[in-house]
Amino acid sequence: MHALPPLEQPVEWLLLVLDGAGIFVFAVSGAALALRERLDLFGVLLLAFVTALFGGILRDLLLGATPPETLTSWRNAAIALSGGIFTILARNGIGRLAKPVRLFDAIGLGLFAAAGTGKALDFQVDPLMAPAVGMVVGIGGGILRDLLVTRTPLVLQAEIYAVAALAGGYAVVAGQALGIAAQPAMIGGALLCLGLRLLALYRGWTLWQPPAPPGL
Amino acid sequence: MHALPPLEQPVEWLLLVLDGAGIFVFAVSGAALALRERLDLFGVLLLAFVTALFGGILRDLLLGATPPETLTSWRNAAIALSGGIFTILARNGIGRLAKPVRLFDAIGLGLFAAAGTGKALDFQVDPLMAPAVGMVVGIGGGILRDLLVTRTPLVLQAEIYAVAALAGGYAVVAGQALGIAAQPAMIGGALLCLGLRLLALYRGWTLWQPPAPPGL
Amino acid sequence: MHALPPLEQPVEWLLLVLDGAGIFVFAVSGAALALRERLDLFGVLLLAFVTALFGGILRDLLLGATPPETLTSWRNAAIALSGGIFTILARNGIGRLAKPVRLFDAIGLGLFAAAGTGKALDFQVDPLMAPAVGMVVGIGGGILRDLLVTRTPLVLQAEIYAVAALAGGYAVVAGQALGIAAQPAMIGGALLCLGLRLLALYRGWTLWQPPAPPGL
C-alpha cells in the first residue's frame, strides 16, 4: 500500500490517506500517555512510534517479511513522529480532540485488522489464524505502549476493541472463501470492524467479565 | 509433531497427546491468573493463548521458522482456547485441580524444552546455546503472562523451573553428540527435566538467592 | 565481527575487545539490578544475559538474520554470564566500580549503535531508518531489563542516551553517503556517540521534558 498510486485510482488514494490518518492518531494516543507519565522528549516520540507502528512490525516478524515495512521506507516513521510532535504542541487542547481521535482510531483499527489479515493469508497462515495476525496489527502497539509505562494493557479490560478487529478479519477470510476479490473483501472487513467499534463506543457495550474464582 | 501419525505408532501418539495436555495446562495457568486479575472474556482467552503458545512462537521467530507453527494450523490455538474456556467454567473447583495441573505442567515443560532443543539443533544453533531455545519454549509464555499483568515473572524468583528445562535440553545435546537417535534422546531429555521439576516441587528445593549488595 | 581476526590486524582486535567489554558491562548493569530486586541465581544470570544481548537479538530478528548471532556461537553468552557471575562475586565493591562501568557502557553503546546501523544498511533498511536499528541494539536490552522488574524504562526518562546512539548511527549513514569506507565510518560514528554520551554524563545534560497536559 505504500508506493504512491497513480492519480486515477481514487480508492487507493483514499485507503492510503486513511491508513496514514490511523497511524497518526495511534501515535497521538501513545504521545498523550507519555506526556501524562512525564517522559522526556525522546520518551514521548518513542511511545508515539511504538504505539503506531509496533503492531505492523510484529505482523511482519511473524510472517517472516523482514525487514518490516516500517524499516524499508521512512513514510510510517515520519507520520508517527508528526503525531507525537503534534501532541506536544497541541497538548492544551488535546482533551477537546477526544472525539475525532476516537473516530480515526476506529478507522485505523479496521484498516490495520483487515489489511493485516489479507497479508497473513498471502503468507500461508491458516485461514482460521489469519485474523489473529490482523488483530495483532491493531492492538500490538497499544499493548507495548501500556507495558512501557507498566500498566496492565487497556485492551484486556472490558472493551469491544480486539473483538471488533477479529470480526473484521474473519469477514476478510469469509469474503476470500466466497471468491470475492481481495480489495472489496478487505474494505468490507474494515467497515464491519469500524461499525462494531463505533456501536460499542456509543452504546457503551462492554465484554463480559467472568467472576473471580473463590479464594484463588 | 503436528501431522497426525498413523495408528501403529503408539510413541508418536503418546507424545502428541502429552504435548496437547501440556498446552492445555499452560493455558489453564494463564486463564486462572487472568480471572484473579479481573480481566474480561477476551483478556482471559488472550492470556490463556499467550501463556500456552508464546514460547513456541518465540522459538520459531528466533529460528527463522516463519510463520510460526501456531499460525500454520489451528490445532494449538484450539487447545489453548479450550483450556481458557475450561478454566472459566470450572473456576469454582480449579483450586482442587492444583496437583494434576502441576504434574501436567511439568510434563509439558519437559516436552517443550526437549523438542525445542532438538528443533534448534536442526536450525544451526550452536549446541551450547540450543538448550536456551528449548528453555524459551518452556518459560517464554509464563514470562509474557506475568508482564501483561505487570508483575515480576515468577520464573525469576527462587524456583527450580527454568534450570530443569536447561538440564533436559543439555541431555538432548549430549545424546545427539553420543550418536543416540533424535527421538530417544528427546524422550530422555524430557524425562530428566520432568524428574528434576517434580523432585524440586515435592522436596521444596529452591535456587540460591544471592544476598543484596550493601546500599546499592 | 566474531571470527577471530589474524594477529596483524590490530584495529579488528581492538574492536573485538571493546565489543566484549561492552557486553560485559551491560551484563553487570542487568545483574546489579537483579541483585537489588532479590532475584534468585537464575534470575540474576538471565537479567545479565538479556540486558547484554537482547538488543542484538532484536536487531537480527528485525533484519531477518536468523538464528541471531548470539545463538550461533557461545561467545556472547559466555561474556554476558561472566559479567553476571562477576557481579555476584564483587557485589560488595560494585558501588566503587560505578565510574569504569559508565565509561565502558558508553563505549559499548557507541560500538553497538554504529555496528548495528552498518548491519541494517547491509540488509536493505532505508538509510533514514537504519540508525533506529542501531539504537535498538544499544537500548533494547536495558528496556527489557527494566520491564522484567516492572519499572518504566530508564531510557525514556530524561537522559541523553538513546539520542547519542541515534547521532552515532546518522554519522555512519552520512559517512557511507560521502563514500567513506565502512570501517572508518563506523569508528567515527561510535566515537561521536561516545563523546556525546560522556559529555552528557559529566555536564549533567538532560533531555527536555514536555509539560504535562492540563487535566489529561
From TrEMBL, chains A, B, C:
InterPro entries: Gly_transporter (IPR005115)
GO cellular component terms attached to this protein's record: plasma membrane
Pfam hit, one: Gly_transporter
Keyword set, alphabetical order: Cell membrane, Membrane, Transmembrane, Transmembrane helix
Subcellular location: Cell membrane
Record-annotated membrane-spanning stretches: 13-35, 42-62, 74-91, 103-121, 127-148, 160-179, 185-202
Domain Glycine transporter: residue ranges: 17-90, 103-174
Membrane topology: Multi-pass membrane protein
Keyword NAD included in the entry's annotation: no
Family according to the record: Belongs to the UPF0126 family.
PANTHER family per record: INNER MEMBRANE PROTEIN (PTHR30506), UPF0126 INNER MEMBRANE PROTEIN YADS-RELATED (PTHR30506:SF3)
Name assigned to this protein: Glycine transporter domain-containing protein
Species whose genome carries this gene: Zavarzinia compransoris
Lineage: Bacteria, Pseudomonadati, Pseudomonadota, Alphaproteobacteria, Rhodospirillales
